[in-house]
Amino acid sequence: MSSVKLRHGSLFSGIGGFDLAAEWAGWENVFHCEWNPFGQQVLKHYWPNAESFNDITKSDFSKYEHTVDIISGGFPCQPFSTAGDRRGTDDTRYLWPAMLDVIRAVKPRYVVGENVHGLVNWNEGLVFNTVCANLEAQGYEVRAFLLPAAGVNAPHCRYRIWFVAYNATYTNNKRYAHQGKKQELERARLIKPNERITWDSFPSEPALCGGNDGLPKKLDRITFPEWREETLKSYGNAIVPQVALQIFKAINEYEIQKLKTK
C-alpha cells in the first residue's frame, strides 16, 4: 500500500483502535487523549512517543495548530446508543462540542469521527445534522457513511456512522516545511504476519470480545487480572480498526493523487 507520511492525533482514544489503524496506514501518531486509566496504560505502552492528554475538556491542543494532518475520534456513543437511555445532548457524556473545540484549535486537514448507528435517528437526526453543520461552518466538506464491521469480514454487523471531513485550505506547516515531494511518496509499513488479523480464527462470541473487534493480541497482552472488567469495557467501546483503515487508505490515495498532479 502506497502512503504519505501524515501526522495523526486521536481523541477518545480508548485502547488505540484509531492509532493502530493509523500505524497500519504508515502515519505518525502524534498525540492521543483518553481519560480512562486502563486505556492510558495501553496507549502509553504502544505509542510512548505520542503525547498523552487526559481530559479533553481541560487540555490545550493549540500548540498543534497546522502541524497535524488528521484528527480522529469516536466521541462517546452512550448518549445515542439504543442500549442506554438515549438522553442525547442532555447526557454529560455528550462530548461532540469538546471534539469540535479541538478541531478548531488544531485545524487538521482531515477529520474522521465515529459513533453508533443510533446517532443518525436520535431526535430526528438533530445531532447528526449538528455534527455536519459544525464541520461545514469550519470550512470542511463532509460526507457520512454507515459502515458495518462485516464489510471487512468481521463475524458480526456492528453498524457505525463515520464522518469524513476535508478542508483544502488547511496545510500542515511542519510537514510541508521539512519534506519534499519525493519524500512524501513512500511505502507504508507492512503489518507483521503475527499481527495480521484473520477473522476465521475467532468464534462469534469470544471470551473477551477482542476477536469481534478486530484488535490484535498485542493490544491486550498487558492487561492485568484485576482489570479484566476494564478489558471487556474497552473492547466493547473500541472501534474496529480494519474499518478505519479502509478510510485511511482512501485518504492516502487522495493525497498521493494530489502530489502527482503538482
Overall description:
The chain is α/β, with parallel strands linked by helices and 262 residues long. It has a single domain, classed as 3-Layer(aba) Sandwich (Rossmann fold), CATH 3.40.50.150. The chain is built from 10 helices and 9 strands. The strands form 2 sheets. A 7-stranded mixed sheet has the order 4-3-2-5-6-8-7. A two-stranded antiparallel sheet has the order 1-9. α3 links the parallel β5 and β6. It is globular. The two termini are 21 Å apart. About 11% of the residues have low confidence.
Short description:
The protein is of the alpha/beta class and 262 residues long. It contains ten helices and nine strands. It has a seven-stranded mixed sheet. Strands 1-9 form a two-stranded antiparallel sheet.
- CATH domain class: Alpha Beta
User: What's the total count of β strands?
Assistant: 9
Strand order of the largest sheet: 4-3-2-5-6-8-7
- Uncertain regions: pLDDT < 50 for 5+ in a row? 176-196, 201-209
What structural class do you assign from the helix and strand content? Answer: alpha/beta
Whole-number total of structural domains? 1
Rg over alpha carbons: 18 Å
Specify the biggest β-sheet.
7 strands, mixed
The string of secondary-structure elements, in order, is EEHEHEEHEHHEEHHEHHH
Count of DSSP-assigned helices: 10
